[in-house]
Recover the amino acids of this structure.
């Protein structure tokens, strides 16, 4: 059989969590099912970079057009979008709907996103949601019947070893784009309550609302202790995960929240929000706070900063929790969705 996947979001200069998902699923499926034929399809903006990828022997590349898809038995849109061409069996992965539910994008982008999401939801034979939270939103906001929804969590790669607390530095780390949804203005305010000697490192490129975040940093009395190194490739991010002592992720809306699991995998105690998918994904392995309450966020950070035992407790709990999220499981569950449609 031939399986075609829209892998456009898996390539690019600044790959997000959605891009990580797309690479893990696409390559994972091809490697796990070497007897099958896979086509990694790219819209025009992704094709040039896709040529740099070394592909398994059973994978071909194709240019993806809205009006035409290559012959295949099943098409999978890995980023909540399907081409308008006639499709055989179709699967669409939905990551989040914050563009629809919040003021986190320009009106033009919101309108385009909504149209693409609605069309994909209507045409997909099965929808993979990356969390129960996202599944509930797809059902309630897009009118998708539950029978077409399947929840498949992300995985995370576990490092073979993690530094002890004594080897780390007094750094509060955040990984994610500098955008309004990430709630970084409140994180900066909360960090101002931290003891002297601590630093705040915000890793990520600039997104919608970055100007307000940068202004808050510039006006902060602790601005000399706040760093914004920009987007970093995975190897450099891992070095920061290994250096930091606390991870903070007080986002206002997440469909999954992969950086939370990455931080846990690296043995970092995590402070995150008790809303959206973060409540589901972090469970009892993180300190959960009301992301709108700067005081509660600051208190959680101070509690971890001042108590090595508490840090160790959440670091160990988080690492065990992260280990239960395996990309191999996500690939297997995705394949099961394919087989469900194809009668395998």
């Amino acid at each position: 059989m031939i399986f075609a996947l829209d892998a456009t979001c898996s390539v690019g200069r600044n790959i997000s969590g959605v891009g990580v998902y797309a690479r893990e699923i696409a390559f994972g499926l091809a490697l796990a099912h070497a007897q099958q034929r896979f086509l990694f399809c790219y819209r025009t903006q992704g094709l040039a970079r896709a040529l740099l990828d070394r592909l398994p022997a059973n994978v071909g590349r194709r240019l993806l057009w809205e009006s035409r898809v290559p012959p295949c038995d099943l098409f999978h849109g890995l980023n909540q979008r399907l081409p308008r061409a006639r499709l055989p069996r179709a699967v669409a992965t939905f990551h989040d709907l914050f563009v629809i539910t919040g003021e986190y994008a320009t009106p033009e982008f919101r309108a385009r996103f909504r149209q693409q999401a609605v069309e994909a939801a209507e045409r997909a034979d099965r929808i993979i949601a990356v969390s129960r939270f996202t599944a509930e939103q797809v059902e309630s906001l897009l009118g998708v019947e539950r029978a077409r929804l399947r929840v498949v969590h992300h995985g995370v790669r576990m490092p073979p070893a993690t530094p002890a607390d004594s080897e780390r530095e007094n750094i509060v780390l955040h990984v994610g784009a500098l955008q309004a949804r990430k709630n970084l203005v409140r994180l900066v305010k909360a960090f101002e309550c931290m003891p002297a000697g601590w630093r705040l490192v915000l890793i990520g490129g600039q997104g919608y609302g970055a100007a307000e975040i940068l202004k808050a940093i510039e006006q902060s009395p602790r601005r000399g202790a706040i760093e914004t190194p920009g987007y970093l490739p995975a190897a450099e991010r891992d070095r920061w995960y290994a250096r930091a002592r606390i991870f903070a992720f007080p986002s206002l809306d997440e469909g999954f929240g992969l950086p939370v699991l990455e931080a846990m995998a690296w043995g970092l105690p995590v402070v995150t929000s008790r809303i959206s998918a973060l409540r589901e994904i972090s469970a009892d392995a993180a300190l959960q706070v009301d992301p709108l309450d700067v005081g509660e966020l600051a208190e959680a950070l101070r509690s971890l900063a001042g108590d090595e035992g508490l840090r160790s407790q959440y670091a160990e709990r988080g690492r065990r929790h992260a280990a239960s999220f395996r990309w191999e499981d996500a690939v297997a569950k995705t394949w099961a969705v394919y087989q469900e449609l194809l009668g395998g």
About this structure: The domain at 165-322 is CATH 3.40.50.2000 (Rossmann fold). DSSP finds 13 helices and 13 strands in the chain. The radius of gyration is 20 Å.
